[in-house]
Amino acid sequence: MVRKKVCVFISGYGSNLKTLIKNSRNYNFPVSINLIVSSSPNAKGIFHAKKNSIPYLIIDTKKRSFENILLNELKKRKISLICLAGYMRVISKKFIQNFKNKIINIHPSLLPKFKGLNTYNRILKNNEKKTGCTVHLVNSELDSGKILLQKSFFIKADDNLESLKNKTQKLEYKAFSEAIVNLYRYN
Ligand code: GRF
């Protein structure tokens, strides 16, 4: 099996990245993590790149040319799929066009409900009975691309921000990898 090359974009802690790296070590996993891109030099997730000797790039999103530099780098490294794992920057239409249907994101709600930020807060405020996570294709509208996979759980009366985040992220770790396996199942 020739593994597809994946680049993971992060901005923060990188717990999804950590799980993706771990799962990519599995013999049957269809992709390898070949590059990590961070929008911040302080992202904790960079640690996982260093620890696993995976090349990483820190991008300066204030520079206008950053997307062109990034696109060149991704093409040079023959990256076939980009996984957004807590990447907190907007991606331009042009960039998405260059990787059409090849960028996936993980979001901590059952989309189309609760697109955008402060998700857990809004879910609790809205007294939702059920929540979960969604892996979806990225298009030019926020959290609106085709849904690839969702996992859900029932919210308990004593759930709070922290417990909701913990439960959701546990599902995210499974969902992200499962969605990737499904993408390459017949290829
Ligand atoms: C994830 O929980 C995901 O839902 C959201 O950002 C969070 C990133 O967490 N898009 P981590 O950096 O993977 O720990």
Summarize, please.
The protein is α/β, with parallel strands linked by helices and 187 residues long. The protein is built from six helices and seven strands; from the N terminus they run βαβαβαβαβαββα.
State the separation between the terminal residues, measured CA to CA: 10 Å
Following the backbone from N to C, one meets helices and strands in this order, namely EHEHEHEHEHEEH
**What helical percentage do the residues reach?**
25-40%
Largest sheet: 7 strands, mixed
What shape does the CA trace take? globular
Global Rg: 16 Å
Ranges where pLDDT stays below 50 over 5 or more residues in a row are none
Strand content: 15-25%
Which structural class do the helices and strands define?
A: alpha/beta
Mean pLDDT: 96
Specify the oligomeric state: single chain
Question: If helices are DSSP runs of H or I spanning 4 or more residues, what is the number of helices?
Answer: 6
Write the layout of secondary structure elements.
Blueprint: E1 4-10, H1 15-24, E2 31-38, H2 46-51, E3 56-58, H3 66-76, E4 81-84, H4 93-98, E5 103-107, H5 119-125, E6 130-137, E7 147-154, H6 161-183
Parallel strand pairs: 1-2, 1-4, 2-3, 4-5
Antiparallel strand pairs: 5-6, 6-7
Helix pairs in contact: 1-6
The structure holds 5-O-phosphono-beta-D-ribofuranosylamine.
